[in-house]
Amino acid sequence: MIAVLSFLLALSLLGGGLVVGAQLFLAGAVIQALHRHEPEQAMFLMRQINDRLAGPQSVALFIGTLLAVSAVGVIAFLALESVERWWLMAGAVVYLIGPVGVTMTHQAPLNAGLKAADWSNAERVWPAYRRRAQFWSVIRAALGIAALGALAIGAVEF
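Above: the chain sequence. Below: its structure as tokens.
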């Protein structure tokens, strides 16, 4: 069981680092860069980016990491009895709340709304989308960094 936990923990840290890094890059660079364009062009480009991010490779990374992190939390709860158990469980829970939960409850609906928005409303839609998308991207990335930190501390203690 310990070898399985070690393998899943490594996958969680690698996959989580990629997911959280992409979320942070989206908030810190992509949305900021798009803000310099006209609203119609920014909407068009963001729709293209969102379509790519919903592609099979990104979805596989997102779901695969979700499964690995979830398994780490469950195995830590069932198989460990020392302090690392709590770090690993906390990391798993915060990851599920942040990079996964915020994506599903806030970012995905925002992206769907942007995709469905009428181009004629770009002057109103883009600024509202940009503010909320950037805010939630920062929140999920910050929670993701905290989660990965907890998982790393649990790994060191483990």
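The mean pLDDT is 95.
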